Amino acid sequence: MEVAVLNSNGKETGRKVELSNAVFGIEPNNHAVYLDVKQYLANQRQGTHKAKERAEIAGSTRKIKKQKGTGTARAGSIKSPVFVGGGRIFGPRPKDYTQKLSKSLKKVARRSALSLKAKEQSILVLEDLNFETPSTKEFSNVLKALQLDGKKSLIVLGDSNKNVYLSSRNLKGSEVVTPSELNTYKIVNANNLVFLEGALEGIESNLSK
């Protein structure tokens, strides 16, 4: 699949790059994509939720009324879950939500997600960006030139670039990552993927193995 290389003004440079069919042209495995997205979201959960149960409530252990003759149900402790301020029955406890997937399955999922974006023609290739200083305005102008202003976009750099990252940080809907930070959830969640030329070689060599 050939894609034209654009410059920061959104114009074609006259050059084209060939996207690897082994990464961008496979038959998508939707179930692998589902499993990888599910794992990513599960791994974001802290699992620190906790409610105090009956044994953990601070309060008197005195029997609050006599056993018989009151005409109401017997009650032995103010910490009972049936009273306001009592412990919670079967409350949440800290839990590890971490899930694991094999490396091969994760690669299949990422190739599938990239192939889906390629079929949707939602992939752009851009010349390498190089900002002298962080500039949100300059980065915003690039997005406008690519007609991505206000859309969910994922920009993949070839190497870590602090100035480009800082320039994008205040813009809602746009995210800048390096190839090592690219995952299935971010690919699926974005409306458009923008690959800088320097990023393609590393991604293709990593995912085609």
From TrEMBL:
Listed InterPro entries: Ribosomal_uL4, Ribosomal_uL4-like, Ribosomal_uL4_dom_sf
Molecular-function GO term, any one: rRNA binding
UniProt entry tagged with the keyword RNA-binding: yes
Membrane-spanning segments: none
GO BP annotations, alphabetical order: translation
Region (Disordered) location: 46-77
GO cellular component, one term: ribonucleoprotein complex
Keyword annotations from UniProtKB, A to Z: Ribonucleoprotein, Ribosomal protein, RNA-binding, rRNA-binding
Gene3D superfamilies for the chain: 3.40.1370.10
Record note on quaternary structure: Part of the 50S ribosomal subunit.
UniProt family annotation: Belongs to the universal ribosomal protein uL4 family.
Function: Forms part of the polypeptide exit tunnel.
Matching NCBIfam families: rplD_bact (TIGR03953)
Protein name: Large ribosomal subunit protein uL4
Annotated source species: Neptunitalea chrysea
